[in-house]
Amino acid sequence: MGEEGGGRSCGTTRELQKLKQQAMEYYRENDVPRRLEELLNSTFYLQPADVYGHLANCFSKLAKPPTICKIVGKEVLDGLGLPTLQVDTFCTIQNFPKNICSVVISTHFEVHENALPELAEAEEAERASAVSTAVQWVNGTITHELQGMAPSDQAEVDHLLRIFFASKVQEDKERKELEKSLEYSTVPSPLPPVPPPPPRPPPTKKKGQKPVRKDTITEKPITPAEPVEPVLSGSMAIGAVSLAVAKACAMLLNKPLYLSIALLKHNQEQPTTLSMPLLMVSLVSCGKSSSGKLNLMKEVICIPHPELTTKQGVEMLMEIQKHINKIIEMPSPPKAETKKGHDGSKRGQQQITGKMSHLGCLTINCDSIEQPLLLIQEVCANLGLELGTNLHLAINCAGHELMDYNKGKYEVIMGTYKNAAEMVDLYVDLINQYPSIIALIDPFRKEDSEQWDSIYHALGSRCYIIAGTASKSISKLLEQGNISIPKSNGLIIKHTNQTTMSDLVEITNLIESKKHITVFGSTEGESSDDSLVDLAVGLGVRFIKLGGLSRGERVTKYNRLLTIEEELVQNRTLVGRKFWATSLALGPADTILGEQNRQKLVGKDNSYKGSSPKSLPVVPGQEGKVKIFPCSFLSKFRLAGKKHLKFEKEKIRSLNL
C-alpha cells in the first residue's frame, strides 16, 4: 500500500512539474514576467489610490486590439414607417464579444405621395425584397468574411465588400441570362410579317382651294427617357456595413465619427482644422404633390449667410418658418360682398394652405412661380432680413418630375407647358428677377444635355447649376471618372446602396479635382440615424442638404450639426468658411461679387455696419479660428416681426398670393 501511495505521489509531482514548465514557457512567450515586473515596480513608485484600477488600465493597454466577431442585420422602420436596414457591429474586446454600435441606412426609393395604387404596391414589394435580401447578405456571407478583421482597417473592409458585391452582380447577370434563354426557348416562332398597305395617293386639289400653308417651325422631338439605372436588390447591405465598421472604429478609439472620416480623407493624417458645411434648408414645397397649380418648385431652399454660425443660421431659419406657419394658419379677414364674388376676390384665387411634407417642410398651394418667392421675401422683410445679403435661395426644380411625355414638354404650372429651350429662358428670367437665387437643382431631365449646356453657359457664373437626380450613381461616376455630364457646377451625393466610405472619399476627391462643389444630401425617406452629418463634416463638403426643420428624423441631424460645431469650437479646430455662397470659384468676377456682398453685411474692418438688423454683427475672433457671433441678434427682428405680423396677411394678398 505504501509503495502504491508513493508511486502516485511521484506521478502527481511529475505532472505538476510538467504543468509548471508549460506555464513558464507560455508566460515567457507572451513576455509576461518582464512586463509584470515593470508594472509592479511602476505601481509601487506611483502608489495610486486605486491600485487595481491602475493595474486594470495598464493591462487594458497591453490587450490585443479589438476585432470584428459578428455583423448583425435586421429590418427596422424609417421616419415614414417604411422598412429599411439596421446593422449592428460586434467586436471581441479582451476575449469577450461586445455590441459596439448600430447604424441605419436609408433606402434609395423616392417618396411618391400621389402615386397610383398599383405603382405604390409594386414599389412596396420591391422595397421589402431589397431590405430582406440585404438582411440575408449581412447575416450570411458578409459576417463570415469580416470575422477577425480590425475595424480600423477600413480600406480592407471596403475592398472585401466590393469583391462580395461584384460576385452578387455577376450572379444576378447570369440568372437573368438564364431566364432570358429559357424564355426564348418557350416562345413560339413568330409569324411572317404582313406587308404594309400601299401608300395612299395624294389628295386631288379642288378648284379654287387655297394651298395649305405648312408650319415652318417644327419642334425638335424630345430625347426618350433613359432606362433607370438598375439597383441590385440588397445592395444597401454594402453601404450599411461599411458605415457600421467606420462608426465602430471611431467608438473604439473614443473619437467622433467625423474625425475618423477626416483621417480617411487625408490618408490617415490628422487635419489641423475642419469647417462646417453651409446649410441648405428646405422652407416650402410647391412641387407636383402640392394641391396648387405650381409644379416647378419641389423645394424652395434657404442658405444662411456663410459668416453666420450653424446655430445662428438654424435659429434664423426657424424664425422664418414660424412666421410662414402663422401666415398660413391665420384665417382670412371677412370682406364685404361685392359683385365680383362673395369675398370680393378674383375668381380662381385661393387662400394659401399648407401641410407638413416628408421633406420636413411645408407643402403649400401656389398658382404662380412668384408666389412662394414673394412669400419668403415678405416674411424676411418683416423680420428685418434681406434676401441676397443675410440669406440666399436655391430651387430644387426636380425637372424629371415635370416632363409630360405625351406632349414632350415640361409642365411648369398645371396646364402650362414649355419645351426644353423655353425652360432655359424661364430660368434666366427667374434669376434676373430674383438674383438672391444662387442655385438651381435638377433644372432639366438628365437626357436634355443640350439644355444643361445652355443654362450652364447662361447662368453658370451667377448661380450654381447642380445635378442631383440627373447625375449618375456614385459607383458609375467612379467607374467612368467623368462628372461633366450633365454640365453643372456641382453634384449632390448621397450615402445609399453599395456606396462605401472609401467610395465617398474617392468621389469627393474627384469632384474637388474638377473644381466642382459637393452637396451632401439626405434621401427622401430618412431614418433617425445622424451619421450622415459626420460624413459631411469629415469629407469637407461645401453644402449639406437635410430637408426642413421639422420631423424628428431630420431635426436629429440638425442637432448633430450643432453638437459638432460646439465640439470644434471647444477644440479650437473650427475655421471660418473661406468661400461665399455667391462665389463659384470660376474667376475673379465671382470673387469680387462675393466681396461686394461681404461689404454689404459688414464693413472692411469687420465692424457692424448700420443699425438695422438687416446687417448682422460680426465680432472678430482669433486669427484662423471661427468668428463667434452673438445669438441675441434674433431678438431684434422677433420684435419687429410681431409688429408686422397682423399686416402680413393683407400684404401677401395684395401680392396676389
Helix count, DSSP H or I runs of 4 or more residues: 18
Reading side by side through the largest sheet, how are the strands ordered?
4-5-8-12-13-14-15-16
What is the residue-averaged pLDDT? 82
Q: Report the major sheet.
A: 8 strands, mixed, barrel
Radius of gyration: 32 Å
Taken as a percent bin, the fraction of beta residues is 5-15%
By helix and strand content, what is the structural category? Answer: alpha/beta
In angstroms, what separates the terminal alpha carbons?
113 Å
Low-confidence regions:
212-217, 338-349, 579-657
- Tell me the total number of β-strands: 16
Please explain how this structure is put together:
Mean pLDDT is 82; it is low at 212-217, 338-349 and 579-657. The chain is an alpha/beta fold and 657 residues long. The N and C termini lie far apart (113 Å). The strands form three sheets. It has an eight-stranded mixed β-barrel with strand order 4-5-8-12-13-14-15-16, surrounded by five helices. Helix 8 (310-329) packs parallel to helix 18. It is globular and about 115 Å long. It is 44% helix and 14% strand. The protein has 18 helices and 16 strands. Helix 14 links the parallel strand 14 (490-493) and strand 15. The longest helix is centred in the N-terminal third of the chain and has 33 residues, at 154-186. The chain has helices at 2-29, 32-46, 51-62, 117-146, 154-186, 236-252, 257-265, 310-329, 370-382, 399-402, 420-433, 449-459, 474-480, 501-513, 531-539, 552-570, 588-601, 633-654, and strands at 67-77, 83-93, 96-105, 278-286, 297-304, 354-356, 362-364, 391-396, 403-404, 409-413, 416-418, 437-441, 464-467, 490-493, 517-521, 543-547.
